[in-house]
Amino acid sequence: MPRTxxxxxxxxxxxxxxxxxxxxxxxxxxxxxxxxxFVTLLGPSGCGKTTLLKTISxxxxxxxxxxxxxxxxxxxxxxxxxxVNTVFQNYALFPHMSxxxxxxxxxxxxxxxxxxxxxxxxxxxxxxxxLEGFENRMPHQLSGGQQQRVAxxxxxxxxxxxxxxxxxxxxLDKKLRSNMQIELKNIQNQSGISFIxxxxxxxxxxxxxxxxxxxxNGSVSQEGKPEEIYYQPKNKFTADFIGETNLINGLVEEExxxxxxxxxNFEFHLTKDFQQYxxxxxxxxxxxxxxxxxxxxxxxxxxxSNFNVEVIQRLFFGPNIKIVCKIKNQIFHCLxxxxxxxxxxxxxxxxxxxxxxxxxxIKLFE
Amino acid sequence: xxxxxxxxFLLTPFTLYITVFFLGPILILLTYSFLEPGLYGGVxxxxxxxxxxxxxGWADGIIEEFNPVYFKIFLNSFKLALITVIIxxxxxYPTALWISRLKPKLKVFFLFLVTLPFFSSLVVRLFAWMxxxxxxxxxNEFLLNIRLIDEPLQxxxxxxxxxxxxxxxxxxxxxxxxxxxxxxxxxxxxxxxxDLGGNRLIxxxxxxxxxxxxxxxxxxILVFIPxxxxxxxxxxxxxAKVMMIGNIIEQSFLTSRNWxxxxxxxxxxxxxxxxxxxxxxxILSKYEKII
Lengths: 366, 291
What we know:
The complex is a heterodimer.
Chain A: E1 4-16, E2 22-34, E3 38-42, H1 49-57, E4 64-69, E5 72-73, E6 84-87, H2 99-103, H3 105-110, H4 115-128, H5 144-156, E7 162-166, H6 174-191, E8 194-199, H7 202-208, E9 211-216, E10 219-224, H8 226-231, H9 236-241, E11 246-255, E12 258-262, E13 267-270, E14 281-286, E15 304-316, E16 320-327, E17 330-337, H10 341-344, E18 352-358, E19 363-365
Parallel strand pairs in A: 3-8, 3-9, 6-7, 7-8
Antiparallel strand pairs in A: 1-2, 1-4, 4-5, 9-10, 11-12, 11-14, 12-13, 14-19, 15-16, 15-18, 16-17
Chain B: H1 2-33, E1 35-37, E2 43-47, H2 50-56, H3 68-100, H4 104-115, H5 122-133, H6 138-145, H7 159-184, H8 187-195, H9 200-211, H10 213-228, H11 232-238, H12 245-254, H13 259-290
Helix pairs in contact in B: 1-13, 3-7, 3-10, 5-11, 7-10, 7-11, 8-9, 10-13, 12-13
């Protein structure tokens, strides 16, 4: 049983808009975060993820509800006394201080350490972020990635219980970002600090997190392991926001004891597992990579269904190919694995092909 | 090539303006400061360095005599200007800090209030101060009425009155650069300091104050230089009691009609000012790189 480090209970927060209205930034949020856990708050901008982070760091207050760290409420503790540290989106390095001064800022204020201990810690984190020899540089003399790492070091040197990261990688280019993702994960493992990571980048969230909390309009839409979130989305929002998916509206009907999904463009049979949706309007979700083109004999898996579609566009990515195709007015995106040049020819524009999928793997949402 | 042409074209009006209205008078001033004063005003075209000697200590003793009083007035002007800088800084810093944290609409309103005095004549405002400060003025009347004092205080024609006047007219010059640099400080830096354990006091001294240094420096220069050369304020509020270097220059030109001596004082004042500006720019450029 994992031990709870921080618990957020019934957290609510509203903002006044400039037009005089009110926005519910947080609607009754309940969350627990465990020791040594890498949790990601994922959602589009305006979903409340940054607000939630700021209420933990103390830059925003809650209208109601409570935040406890190790069982103790912190909502009346000023931010400078909370056992949390933040890595800011724009890094917020102090421009008038050297790398060393920046990193040891928290220790210098704390004054509980003597110089030798301070130096030891400083050298440890400097080694961790791989910036030896840069200690006397000023922030403006560093590249974006280096600044990012200094910001990280400045936070973790204080050994907070929780590290809050507010979209810390969003300003980096793609390659640097994927390097930093690995580094962040390593640092989290080594330091044993719980990370709460805010991002709108779903790939980043999937690759790094122990647990993802998907947020929508100030509420938690779904939480779970990355693979759960990806393959078992509980609602349309999560299915749509995480990864790419085909969302298709239609109706579930029963006909001669068989369950069918039906809309004006096509229909196919569903298994008994979908009984609960009979006579309901639903959206079904299938991921592009869940389609395949070949050769699975229908007898070997009775749940395989197929669509006869027309190719309208194809995009070659190397190991796979993306095909945009349609049945009547319904457009699908499929991501297919390919391994030789000949296969590509099968998917030329305007060709009619069959695409297959496993009915048991699709998701329906009301 | 085209670029240089363009540049030349764009800079011509300003270059002409500077040459005619700034460099010209300064050259005339510089020339006059090295000429012999005429007996009845005007100048005699002889090279003559004793104008400087009269101030700095090597006068010939025939036409001009060394008098340490000018040196003292220089020092006193420095002192008054410095005190003005300190008082305006103390008044403006908290105000600028406070206004910088207001909502945008309120910010504009308060900035307007700060610049409000610019909309009326300086001399009129100083006369108002004379009325306030004089023995039968409002302040004295009030203090007499509430029986805090038995006889009117001598406030007008004192150094204090001059300081009040200088501070009063120069406050906006301290405020604006200060405000500009405080307002520029990224709020996430303040949050970062809080986040790392810095309370308000620590954050102020370690982050806000150092980062607003260019504003402090700029405001100080903008207040110090006009106070140093000011003559209207000491004239009206200091009377015959308080002399600043500006008054001496004014008197040399207008009363004693010793133009070379006045020019010489003005040149010395200018050298001081330019030296200050030189260091100001040097320090500032160091900061510009960082912030």
